[in-house]
């Protein structure tokens, strides 16, 4: 079995961010910062660490700030240089010519539809999908860990994370087979099963490595849960035709699509920093007295 290298990553970033209004009224939700870095930058850096060569953003209207973030900032850079200020804080953000690539999802028809919008750029190659709302903190990063596993087993790999039984109706859930270390054979996938009917408590936390055949399935995919074209439904059709595994992350996950999760991410990452951690810790301990 020849295992093609994963060179491309798709970032579905067309969402409106309604759960964070009014903050996201005129700002992309992916540009919300955790400490001093936008969510989208954490996700892009995670992909680059894994050897991804081409970043593909599936965007919508009003995402100009996101596109500008990864471009040259001429006025800012020229002013900082003229004043003798270090550019270290923004070095490495600008990508090489030809990456990122931007495609539009004109209608909010679901995650599966967003991924399908990138089909011409993905072509006939395996590709990663990263949802920036899900902030994964670990060394190496989640996609790097998944790529290492993929290079051993090939096929399709999705992130796997244990959640409480009461949470399973919120996510895509894995029906597990054989377990080998952090790899779990995927027998079936269920999108947002009704409470009490989930086949396990292993959810898919927004990280995927998929074969290009999923694009052919998405071409004619019917609407599923929530009246949207679900990526989970399309992936489920690959099970039995190609190797399919879940991979459990060795690190921390923060759901930054949720306000409480977003605040927790800011607190956790701030406490881990040498420059601001002590001050934040002292403040937090004072609040809890």
UniProtKB/TrEMBL annotation:
<dbReference type="InterPro" id="IPR005771">
    <property type="entry name" value="GalU_uridylyltTrfase_bac/arc"/>
</dbReference>
<comment type="similarity">
    <text>Belongs to the UDPGP type 2 family.</text>
</comment>
<dbReference type="GO" id="GO:0003983">
    <property type="term" value="F:UTP:glucose-1-phosphate uridylyltransferase activity"/>
</dbReference>
<protein>
    <recommendedName>
        <fullName>UTP--glucose-1-phosphate uridylyltransferase</fullName>
        <ecNumber>2.7.7.9</ecNumber>
    </recommendedName>
</protein>
<dbReference type="Pfam" id="PF00483">
    <property type="entry name" value="NTP_transferase"/>
</dbReference>
<feature type="domain" description="Nucleotidyl transferase">
    <location>
        <begin position="13"/>
        <end position="269"/>
    </location>
</feature>
<keyword id="KW-0548">Nucleotidyltransferase</keyword>
<keyword id="KW-0808">Transferase</keyword>
<dbReference type="InterPro" id="IPR005835">
    <property type="entry name" value="NTP_transferase_dom"/>
</dbReference>
<dbReference type="InterPro" id="IPR029044">
    <property type="entry name" value="Nucleotide-diphossugar_trans"/>
</dbReference>
């Amino acid at each position: 079995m020849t295992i093609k290298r994963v060179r491309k990553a798709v970032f579905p970033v067309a969402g409106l961010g309604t759960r964070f209004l009014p903050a996201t009224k005129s700002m992309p939700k992916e540009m919300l910062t955790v400490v001093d870095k936008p969510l989208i930058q954490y996700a892009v850096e995670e992909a680059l660490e894994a050897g991804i060569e081409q970043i593909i953003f599936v965007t919508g209207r009003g995402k100009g700030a996101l596109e500008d973030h990864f471009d040259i900032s001429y006025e800012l850079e020229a002013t900082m240089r003229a004043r003798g200020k270090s550019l270290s804080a923004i070095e490495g953000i600008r990508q090489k010519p030809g990456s990122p690539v931007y495609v539009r999802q004109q209608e909010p028809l679901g995650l599966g539809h967003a991924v399908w919008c990138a089909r011409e750029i993905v072509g006939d190659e395996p590709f990663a999908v990263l949802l920036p709302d899900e902030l994964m903190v670990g060394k190496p990063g989640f996609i790097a860990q998944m790529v290492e596993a993929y290079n051993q087993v090939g096929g399709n790999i999705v992130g796997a994370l244990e959640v409480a039984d009461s949470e399973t109706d919120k996510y895509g859930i894995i029906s597990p087979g054989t377990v080998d270390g952090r790899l779990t054979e995927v027998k079936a996938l269920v999108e947002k099963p009704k409470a009490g009917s989930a086949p396990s408590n292993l959810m898919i936390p927004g990280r995927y490595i998929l074969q290009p055949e999923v694009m052919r399935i998405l071409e004619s995919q019917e609407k599923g849960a929530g009246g949207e074209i679900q990526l989970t439904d399309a992936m489920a059709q690959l099970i039995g035709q190609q190797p399919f595994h879940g991979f459990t992350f060795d690190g921390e996950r923060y759901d930054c699509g949720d306000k409480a999760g977003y605040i927790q991410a800011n607190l956790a990452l701030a406490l881990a920093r040498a420059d601001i951690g002590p001050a934040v810790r002292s403040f937090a301990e004072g609040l809890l007295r």
